[in-house]
TrEMBL record:
Positions of region (Disordered): 1-25
DNA-binding region in chain numbering: 49-68
Domain annotation HTH tetR-type: ranges: 27-86
Keywords: DNA-binding, Transcription, Transcription regulation
Name of this protein: AcrR family transcriptional regulator
Recorded superkingdom: Bacteria
Length: 213
């Protein structure tokens, strides 16, 4: 069972849940808070004391409770931020590298995401309805990101056609699950081999002339 935040007398409850646009300093503070929460969750699990998160982020307890009245709110925010970062990396990599390399680098980013998700596993698999919408982010954010990279790589002749993006996401997740007890570099090597498998035969497919009818 995921523990809720402990109550404290010196923390004010939010009076209005409608957030106004954040100032730059507030955005930096929020980024630090989410990063600290992610690190603490990976180290100590999602039941870690909120005080430890606040101290690492360099913010007061009131800041944490003001933005995240419930522990589930913070857990969901951490997960959402990691999904968004992974999905947004697709367009960034596509603009900097050729299609095959962009795909390969994003796959490694997804490995990092799986490592982050493991720190949130107790919450995500708890059956708490507060987290029921989170698995859908794979289809709405990560799947389109991977598909765009795969389509570009296929068009460039960098990988062979006919591969399913959803199956590839599950394949990487399974490789990471198997390598959980091994060193982190193991999962990266296995995924690199998987990407090499996607490249096999791609050039032959691209250059094979169409038979005359």
């Amino acid at each position: 069972m995921i523990k809720p935040f402990a109550k404290t007398d010196d923390v004010k409850k939010p009076e209005d849940s409608k957030a106004r646009p954040m100032r730059a300093d507030a955005q930096r503070k929020m980024g630090s808070l989410l990063k600290a929460a992610e690190e603490i969750f990976q180290e100590s699990g999602v039941d870690a004391p909120v005080r430890a998160i606040a101290e690492r982020a360099g913010v007061g307890l009131g800041t944490v409770y003001r933005h995240f009245p419930q522990r589930s709110d913070l857990i969901k925010a951490v997960f959402q931020s990691r999904v968004d970062a992974c999905a947004d990396a697709a367009s960034e990599l596509a603009s900097r590298y050729e299609p095959g390399e962009a795909l390969a680098r994003w796959m490694q980013r997804f490995v990092d995401f799986i490592a982050t998700k493991r720190g949130l596993a107790a919450a995500l698999h708890s059956g708490d309805p507060a987290y029921s919408a989170l698995p859908g982010l794979f289809n709405t954010r990560l799947l389109p990101a991977l598909k765009s990279l795969m389509d570009a790589a296929v068009a460039a002749g960098a990988v062979r056609p006919g591969m399913d993006a959803e199956e590839l996401l599950h394949a990487v997740a399974n490789l990471c699950r198997v390598s959980h007890e091994k060193e982190p570099a193991y999962a990266r090597r296995m995924v690199a081999l998987l990407v090499d498998g996607l490249r096999y035969g791609a050039a032959a497919v691209e250059t094979t002339p169409t038979k005359a009818t």
